[in-house]
Each structure stands twice: as C-alpha cells, then as structure tokens.
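Researcher: I'd like a structural prediction for the single chain below. Treat it as a standalone chain; there are no partners to consider.
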Amino acid sequence: MSDFLPTGIQLTYLVAASLFIFGLKKLGSPATARNGNVIAAVGMLLAIVATMLDRHVLNYEMILLGLAIGSGIGAIVAYKVQMTEMPQMVGLLNGLGGAASALVAVAEFWRLLDSGAPVPLDVNISMLLDVLIGGVTFTGSFLAFAKLQGLISGSPITFPFQQPFNLVLLGAYVAGSVYLIITPDSLPIFLGVVAVSLVLGVMFVIPIGGGDMPVVISLLNSLSGVAAAAAGFVVMNNMLIIAGALVGASGLILTEIMCKAMNRSLFSVLFSAFGTGSTSGGGAGGGGAIDQTVRSIDPEEGAMMLGYARSVVIVPGYGMAVAQAQHSVRELSDQLERMGVDVKYAIHPVAGRMPGHMNVLLAEANVPYTQLYDMDDINPQFEQADVALVIGANDVVNPAARSDANSPIYGMPILEVDRAKQTIVIKRGMSTGFAGVDNELFYKDKTTMLFGSAKDMVSKLVSEVKQL
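Model: Treating it as a single chain, here is the predicted structure.
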C-alpha cells in the first residue's frame, strides 16, 4: 500500500493536468465554456485531494472549515455580483490568487527560519520571485478593481519622476533579494522585500487608464498563474507548477490578443498613460470636437428601420452592460426574427471592461452562440447588412481608426459598422469613449442617433416593433 500511494498520487496529478488542458481548450468557445469550467474544476479537486494525501495532512477539520467558509463566500458572491460587475470580480480573484501564492512563500520562509535549516539556493530564489510576482498581482489587481468600481479615478495617475521612482523601488527589491541570497535568515530584510513588492503593484497599475483595463486584467491573470507556478517550486509540487504555467501562458496569449485588437504594444498600454478612463460628457449634440451636426430619431423611426430590414447586426458595448440591457436586446432580437429579419451580433475583442465581457452578458440573456460573430468574421458582412444597431459602443466602431492618421486610435481594428446601409447608435449623449476622441461615426450621413439609456431605448424599440 505504501508503495502504491506515491504512484497513485502522481497518476492522479497526470489525470488532473490532462483535465486542466482539456478544460482550457473548451473555454475557447462560448458553446463549450461551461463544460470546460466543470472539467477543470474536477481536475483541481483531484489535485487537491492528491496533494492532501501526499503531504500527509492530518488536520482535516481545519481544511473542511476553510472549504466551507470559502464555498459559502463564493456562492454568495456568485449570486450577488451583477454581470456588469464581473470585471471587478475577476480583478479581485486575480489579486487573491497572487496573495495566496505570496503567502506560501512567506510561510515557507518562516518555517525555514524557525527550523534553522539551511535554505537551498533554488528554493530561496523561488521564494523571492513568488513574493515579487504575487505581491504585484495582489495590490495591482485590487487597484484595478478600485478603478473599475469607481472607488478611484479611472484616469491615468502620473507624477514627476514616476519611472525613476519605480526603478528605485525595483533596485531596492533586487538589492534586498541579493542580500537574502547571501544571508537568507534576515527577517527584517525579507519583510522589506515583501513591502516593496506590494508598492510596486500599486505603481504598476495607477498610470494605466480605465480603457486599457481589459489588457490589465488579462495580464494580471497571467501573473497570478506565474505566481502560482513559483509557489509550486517553493513547495516542490509538480501539480501547482503545471496549473500555474497553464494560467500564466493562457493569460499572456490573451493579453497579446487584446493588444492586437487595440493595435498597441503592451509597453504602450503599461507606460503611455493612455485614455481618460471616463465616459462622462455632454448631452446630445454637445461636447464633441467635430463641428458637425448629427441626425436624431425617435424609437418609432428606429423600429421601422429595424422591422423592415432583411439583415440586422447588433453591436453591444459597455453602455449596454451599464444599463443591464442584455435581456431587452435579446427580446428585440427575438421579435425581429419572428418578423423574418436575420439577426447577428458583432463582438469586438476589447468591448467592455474585460476579455469576453460582451459574450458573458449575452450568454446571461441566453443569446444563441451561433448568432455571435467575432470581428474578423462579421466585418465582411456589414456591407450586406441593412441596419447596424450600435448599443453603447464607441471607440470600437470609430472610423477614425481606419481613416485619420492623426487619431490616437489610428490602426486599431474596429467593427466596420459604417459600411452597413444604415447605422443606428443608441447612446446617452455625444461624450467620447475611453480613448478621449470624438467618434466620426456619429456624423456620417447613414448614421442616426437614438439618445437615451440603452435599456430604456431598446425596450421602446421592442414595443414599437411589435406594433408594426
């Protein structure tokens, strides 16, 4: 039996790792994402049970107590948090993951300090990296949460000599780490290194504007995985290394996808202090930098355009999320389909506050996955669309990204709604998006504006369409 247990544990780890990879593959499609999540969760359960047996955990009462408390909190949060607040929740979870990994390193340092045993060089380096990455992820994620939640300004926060100050902090961390490698039993220096890593996390996020939060969240997600992998090296657990590496790699790939979707480098996102982070602005017809007029319609006119169209492409944006209009949008889509209209949804990679934000909202409203099209697939179809209905989107549909070389968003791939025969834009006013630039789309001859809350306007469109 004693010979079988180590082999059984390693086989369980192998099965768990396979389930992680298989589940991650299924997360690539909205249609299979739920199953992928369940499969990965089963893999994690197997990994936890195997680790408890491997480490000869005896105090199962405390583990069960922690499991009950954590599950209770998770269940309450899952039911209470609105889908519009999901980016904030993801930020918090990233931060907690980083904190958990850093605490593993802190606990291991404390254990080695109390035991008086010599600290192996590889373990020492792993602990220091774990503290750095986990600390940055923890405070950086919580600051991202605060920006998204509106607890602090979403605008970039900068000050003179900011980058030199960051370099001083990084230098202090490196110096402390070198000292700990030479003298690994210095508790004050270790605690100082921990404090510096936490400050670095704050300095990492404050100069980034709210419009870049999708990239920041995916990058912090990657860092939380790297921190977990580093924790695996600290405690010499292969399963933790594999799981962390998978999260780190997938998060980094997603970060690259987000950067390409904005036609910006990761360096530009992190250090250019781009975007205002606020969408507040003037009302209808005011506050724009372009001195042109817009054409406004009422819900009755909008309903006639939609009801008599053969093809409609709906483009959801953060305005739909804020108004929680996804269910009304689904109702409008169903009504149009009953009238014989072909309805599709165009999803931009960085629409909303996190990767896949629009997909999550539409899934909540039970929008069929077959109606969701990504940017590359839907753009060639806009010219055949009778109406493009833009609901709360701004920068991701701005033609200036294609035509104005002086625009800060020039070169960013957009949803080419201006190529549709008619475009209806539902928006509260003429305020700019996160990029802080006016939207040329609003002034196009084929564009009409329907001013008001997304939920209110879509509900009125539904009522008017039913009367056609």
